[in-house]
Structures are given as structure tokens and as C-alpha cells.
Amino acid sequence: MRRFAGVVAFTLALIAAGCSKAPAGSDASSPAKGSGITGERPLQLVATAPKGSLHNPYDGNAKIAKEGHKLFFNYGCNGCHGGGGGGGMCPPLITGVWIYGGDDDTLFRLVSLGSEKLQAQGYVVKTLINVPGPMPSMGPLLKSDDDLWKIITWIRSAYTGPPGHKYD
């Protein structure tokens, strides 16, 4: 009986120690409460957020940018935009050539909705470049707004274009 009590006490101590630690994924790469990250799928967020209201909570975070680059590959963005974002069969993402504008809200909506649905919502082409086809809606594939903000953070970190066009 004494041995059983010792095992129970040891088990409870381990559980208590585990409970006092932060949950997995709650480090600096996870969003803080009130950060603007909702955990919603991007299509849900763009359906309810007013135009111009979406802002990247991770802007400038180098650790998040590394995660974003991995997600860029995981979601297959590199297949069209190249592994470094410099373009492939589709436009580059790091040179300051923003077809619809480069602000956070527009980029989030473009990736979520695709170019045709973005235009249907009143967005207009600002820069003409040769594009082989429309940007597809990636919103159904993206698991959360968090993943998309991390990808956008990486795009911003890899930016090589004129400083004045980074967010235009």
C-alpha cells in the first residue's frame, strides 16, 4: 500500500509539474491574446472583417518569418511564385510589384479569395504585368489566419524592392 501511495504521489507531482508549464506552441511564435489572430480560416475572416481592417500582428518578427517560409512551401506557394518568392510562372512577391496593392489587408484578401473574387469585391488592378492566369483562392486550403499571417511575414522579410513600395 505504501508503494502504491508513493506511485500516486509521484504521478500527481508529474502532472502538477506539467500543468505549470506553458502549453505547447505558446512561445513567441504563437499569437498573444488580443493580437488580432482569430484562429479562423481566412475565408471566414475576410467575410466578416471590414475592408482595410486586417493588419499583420507578426510584422518584423524574424522567427515567425522562418515559420512562414516553411508554410510557403507546405501550402505550395513556391510552385507558382518560386522558392524564394522571386517569381516563377507567376509574379514575384518580393520586388514591390503589387498588382492590387501591397498593404496587409489586400494581400490577406488576395491570397484568401483569389484575384477574381477580389476584383468582384471592388479591388482594382494597380500595376499591369504579364500574368499567365488568375491567382487561385487559397482560402479553402489555409488552416487558419495565423498560417496566412506567417506567410505574409515571410514575404515582407524577403522583400528586396524599393523601400517605399513594401506596403503600397
Structure, explained:
There is one protein chain. The protein is an all-alpha fold. The chain has a single domain (40-165), classed as Orthogonal Bundle (Cytochrome Bc1 Complex, Chain D, domain 2). The protein is 43% helix and 0% strand. It contains 7 helices and no strands. It has helices at 2-20, 42-48, 62-74, 78-81, 104-113, 115-120, 145-158. Helix 3 (62-74) crosses helix 7. The chain is globular and about 35 Å long.
Radius of gyration: 21 Å
Q: What is the class in the CATH system?
A: Mainly Alpha
Q: What portion of residues is helical?
A: 40-55%
Low-confidence blocks of residues: 1-29
CATH superfamily: Cytochrome c-like domain
In whole angstroms, how far apart are the ends?
72 Å
The CATH architecture? Orthogonal Bundle
Query: What structural category do the secondary elements indicate?
Result: mainly alpha
Number of domains in the coordinates?
Answer: 1
Can you summarize the main beta sheet? none
Shape: globular
What is the fold-level CATH name, i.e. the topology? Cytochrome Bc1 Complex, Chain D, domain 2
In percent terms, what proportion of residues is strand?
Answer: under 5%
Average pLDDT value? Answer: 81
Number of strands: 0
Per DSSP, the total helix count is 7
SSE succession: HHHHHHH
